[in-house]
Design a protein that fits this description.
Layout lengths: L1 H43 L5 H4 L4 H21 L14 E6 L4 E4 L4 E4 L4 E5 H9 L3 E3 L3
Antiparallel strand pairs: 1-4, 1-5, 2-3
C-alpha cells in the first residue's frame, strides 16, 4: 500500500513540475513576442502595416497601439521626438543638393540663398527639415 502512495505522490510531483515548466516556456514565448512588438514600433512607426496585422492576434495589436500611444504621449509631454536620428550621425555637417528653388533662408548662424541644383555644406540640423520636405537631398560623392 505504501508503494502506491509514493507512486501517486511522485506522479503528482512530476505532473506539477511539468506544468511549471510549460508555464515558464509560455511566459518566455509571450515575453519574446512582446519585445518583438515593441521593436516594431521603432521600425515601422505608429501604424502597424497590413502584412504585420495578419501575423498578430487582436491582443497583440492592442498592445502595439497602447505601446505606441504611450510613446507618443511621452514624446509630446517631453517635447522630444525620439524617432529621429535612431543612429547617431557620423558628421554634424552634410553636403546637400537643392532640388527645388527655395530662395533666401535664415539659418541659426547665417542666411543663405538656396537655388535649384546648388550644392551646400550645411549643419545636419539645418538641412533635415528641407530633406524631409523633399526640397533637398544629401549629396554623396
Amino acid at each position: 500500500m505504501q508503494t502506491t502512495r509514493n507512486e501517486d505522490h511522485f506522479g503528482a510531483v512530476i505532473h506539477h513540475l511539468s506544468l511549471v515548466r510549460n508555464k515558464r516556456c509560455l511566459m518566455a514565448y509571450m515575453y519574446n513576442r512582446a519585445e518583438i512588438i515593441q521593436g516594431l514600433r521603432w521600425k515601422v512607426g505608429p501604424v502597424l502595416p497590413q502584412e504585420m496585422q495578419e501575423k498578430v492576434n487582436y491582443l497583440e495589436e492592442e498592445y502595439f497601439k497602447d505601446h505606441s500611444a504611450a510613446i507618443e504621449s511621452y514624446m509630446s509631454e517631453m517635447d522630444l521626438d525620439l524617432t529621429v536620428d535612431m543612429v547617431p550621425p557620423k558628421d554634424p555637417y552634410i553636403q546637400v543638393r537643392v532640388l527645388d528653388d527655395i530662395g533666401e533662408v535664415c539659418l541659426d548662424d547665417h542666411s543663405i540663398s538656396l537655388a535649384k541644383h546648388s550644392l551646400h555644406f550645411l549643419r545636419r540640423t539645418d538641412a533635415e527639415p528641407f530633406i524631409s520636405q523633399g526640397l533637398m537631398e544629401e549629396f554623396l560623392e
